[in-house]
Amino acid sequence: MLLLAAAAGLMIAMAMMIVRAILGPSHYDRILAANSFGAKTVLLIAVIGFVFGRPAFLDIAISYALINFVTTIALMKFFRYRSLEAPLTPPEPRGIGEAGGD
Amino acid sequence: MSGAISFLDANLAIDLALLAMLVVLAAAIAMTRKLLAAILLMGVYSLVSAVWLVVMDAPDVAFTEAVVGAGVSTIVLLGAILLTRAEAEKTGWGRLIAPALIAVATGALLVYAALDLPSFGDPTSPANAYVGRTYLEVASRDTGAANVVTAVLASYRGFDTLGETTVIFAAGVGVALALGFGERAAPASRLMAGATGDHNVVLRVAAKLLIPIIALFAFYVQFHGDLGPGGGFQAGVILAVAVILHALVFGLRETMTAVKPSFARGVAALGVLLYSGIGVVCIVNGGGFLDYGHLFTAEIEAQIPPGLLGDPGATHHWGQHFGIFFIELGVLFTVAATMVTIFYGFAGRSPGGEAKL
Amino acid sequence: MSFLLDHLNYVAVVVLMMGGLFIVFSSGNLIKRMVGLAIFQTSTGLFYISLAKVSGGTAPIMINAASKEGQALAAELDLAYVAAHGLDGVVYSNPLPHVLILTAIVVGVSTLAVGLAIAVRLREAYGTLEADEIAALDRETPKSTGAGP
Amino acid sequence: MTDALPLVGGGLAIAGVLLVLLGAIGVLRFPDVYTRIHAASITDTGGASLMILGLCLIAGLSPITLKLVIAWAFIMVTCPAAAHALANAAFSSGHSPWIGSFRIMRESDEQAAVQTGPQTGPQTGPKKPGPKKPGLQKQ
Fold first, then answer.
1. pLDDT value at position C139?
2. CB atoms B42 and C39 under 8 Å
3. Do residue C17 and residue B107 have CB atoms under 8 angstroms apart?
4. How far, in Å, CA of C8 to CA of C17, rounded?
5. Does residue A96 sit within a domain?
6. Cα dist from C133 to B81, B89, C123, C124, whole Å
7. Which residue, among D96, D77, D126, D81, has the nearest Cα to D35 in the 3D structure?
8. C21 interaction partners in chain B (CB closer than 8 Å)
9. I need a labelling partner for D96 at 20 to 30 A (CA). Which of B331, C129, D75, D87 fits?
């Protein structure tokens, strides 16, 4: 019963994220909402697994946690750099040459 | 667990709440003119529908929807917008009337038809009572796989899955023909992504940490597919996402030296070849196409030690077991390599100026 | 459960489908149309999965009915309901639609990519993504239609 | 003792959800991107930690606990990294915080301001810090 309440709370939080993703106003707000939505989704899937007695499906939650990150990076890179192919270089070297690269 | 609210009510409540979210999201996508917002909401839509699929007892489908809908399709759409433009033309209100009428009329017809369907969750409905029930009864015994979805996908309906895999391969070829293999990707030195003031060290370190873990997780999903949700399709997409993350953070050129476009192409073809090759081996050994019972001849089967996979007393299905294993491997190769090829095609086509060619 | 609740799932899925259809028809922009098509496709999948759901069922991944997990699941079930439908032990949902939709999703994203690739080429050839403008350009210069870059 | 563990776990999960809800309210109500990122990222990681700890208590010692811990580890790596990347991208593309422009911070680095200015020109369409403020304060 406690877990069911937890699932309900998570879904309310997800609905709030959807509102933020629709309203914007800037694209960064939308990415933030999508990313945060993904984090809540991970939790919701874990909780649902326990509520319905099959907690073995946590693999899906784990894959969400990973994929969500990649999508956020892609969106961020799109809005910031208008490119998917450009590398994210380290900041301008301040006297330390190429250190910190790869 | 049984308390004031029963299992079924909880299931239905979560189900309807998620469907309401989906409807809101679809309406928002229809309203917005900003394609970027539409794509972002599309990603959220996939996430919600994946949670809904978990509630509907379809963890395999949820897995696929999660990695495909929220991962690859968002990135592919972003790549397409990058090469075109991010805003749709405004359509006048007058232009919306006819589509709205069509949609409402079709919807009304479909709702009318849907009301004649057996009620939701009916175990005796024609869809659930016959072949699905039979699969549930025999699949585990026939193939030794606990996950009935994997058993049906790779064994009973193996021919269908071969077709799907080939379609994916063909789609990869189509994208490559239309957009190239990313050979226009600019050398890193020409790209000014590391604009002054950006601190990308955290991202680079996190990505370096995550890329091998994502790849490892892909293989876990691949080889765990018999026992839990997972399999070649999901694992292939996750593996491709690892490559895509590398390209996003370290640059496309860098990735192309690690995973060459020609290598990706080759692996995509190899996957389909492996899949159909297994089918041919079965024919050669006296069975039908993809008839795993004949994957190994009797002499080979006799040489496999009985306790190879744990319990020596259990009846084993070496043909089924290895057949499913290799076929999922073929699916993994094709899906991963095709997704990488598609990403190369979109990301490697430098925006702007190409129309003059 | 009432008749409406029994069919609400299908109705909601039909609404989603029509949302996709509306986007496809109403939007002139080719990429927006692809998004609409993707929504339509996803909701078709949702419809199949709703058909496959069995009340009180669980995911079609076999669990040992004697294990702790299996017993917990079986304890949730109404025994009369199980007996009336000729089921035994843990009830599973129908796996077949899951298989169909699983592959359809991956095929869907591949074909989406093909559609988007064609849209990108159209944009490169015509300089626009609006279907109306492309058609107008075609009518103006019928010769140049096939001559992409 | 063993009967109490699920209850404690459920309580922890509820506490985590309350934290997540607080963060969601913050994301909805805070006035600009940076404060929203702040609200979302802290509560997401904190709420996730509490919830997963609670679920671990419910699951007991089993492979599921291991998976929960793995999921937690991934959340703890990806969420802060994504939040950082987001804030960094918003900042360096010239997004002004609600309290005012951050040009003061940039004065030491005038060249950077000149360089990033035109580059980010086309994509700053939706940020309109001026007229945005009053509307959000009224909420």
1. 85
2. yes
3. yes
4. 14
5. no
6. 18, 11, 11, 14
7. D96
8. 99, 102-103, 106
9. D75
The reply to whether A98 falls in a domain is no
End-to-end alpha carbon distance in chain B: 67
Give the Cα separation of D54 and C38 in Å (integer): 37
Torsion from C-alpha of D59, D60, D61, D67, nearest 10 degrees: 20
Closest CA to B74 of D77, D124, A35: A35
Find chain D residues with C-beta within 8 A of A33's C-beta. Answer: 27
Same domain, C102 and C141: yes
Lowest mean pLDDT segment, chosen from B258-267, D63-72, D91-100: D91-100
Position B109 pLDDT exceeds 90: yes
Q: What is the mean pLDDT of chain D?
A: 75
Closest CA to B265 of B325, B140, B181, B194: B181
**CA–CA separation, C14 and B317 (whole Å):** 43
- Best of A54, A57, A59 to disrupt the C interface (most C CBs within 10 Å) is A54
- The model's confidence at residue B226, banded by pLDDT at 50, 70 and 90, is confident
Count how many residues are written for chain A. 102
The Cα A73–Cα A49 span in angstroms is 28
> Which chains have 3+ CB pairs within 8 A of A?
B, C, D
Domain assignment of residue A22, yes or no = yes
Task: Tell whether the model's pLDDT for residue C60 goes beyond 80.
Answer: yes
Question: Does any CB of chain C come closer than 8 Å to the CB of residue B125?
Answer: yes
Q: Which domain holds residue A36?
A: 2-81
Q: Token pair of C35, please? A: 């998004």
Chain A residues 5-34 with CB within 8 Å of chain B: 7, 11, 14-15, 17-18, 21-22, 24, 27, 30-31, 33-34
Q: Tell me if B199 and D88 make a contact (CB, 8 A cut-off).
A: yes
Q: Summarize pLDDT for C93-133 with one digit per residue, the tens.
A: 888 999 999 989 988 999 999 999 999 888 888 888 888 88
Q: Are the C-beta atoms of B117 and B110 separated by less than 8 Å? A: no
pTM attached to this predicted model: 0.86
Domain range enclosing C113: 3-53+95-146
**CB within 8 Å of chain A, chain B residues 232-251:** 234, 238, 241, 244-245, 247-251
Q: Which chains pack against C, by 3+ Cβ pairs within 8 A?
A: A, B
Model confidence pLDDT, tens digit, residues B29-46: 988 888 888 888 999 999
Q: Which of D24, D33, D32 is nearest to D83 (CA)?
A: D33
Does residue A100 lie in a domain region?
A: no
Which of B49, B178, B229 is facing C121, going by the closest CB pair?
B178
pLDDT at B201 over 50: yes
DSSP conformation class of A93: P
- Residue B10 has what pLDDT? 80
ipTM for the assembly: 0.85
- Quick check: C69 and A52 CB within 8 A? no
**DSSP string computed for B69-133:** IIIIHHHHHHHHHHHS-SBPPPPPHHHHHHHHHHHHHHHHHHHHHHTTSPPTT-TTSHHHHSHHH
Distance from CA of B30 to the nearest CA of D (A): 20
Residues of chain B with pLDDT > 90: what percent?
33
The residue ranges of every structural domain in chain B are 1-117, 156-189+199-357
- In this structure, the answer to whether residues C87 and C115 fall within a common structural domain is no
Please give the interface size between A and B, counted as residue pairs whose CB atoms are below 8 Å apart.
218
pLDDT in tens, B279-299: 998 888 888 888 887 788 777
Of the candidate ranges A48-52, B52-56, B193-197, C108-112, the one whose mean pLDDT is the lowest: B193-197
> Among candidates B119, B222, D54, which has minimal Cα distance to A55?
D54
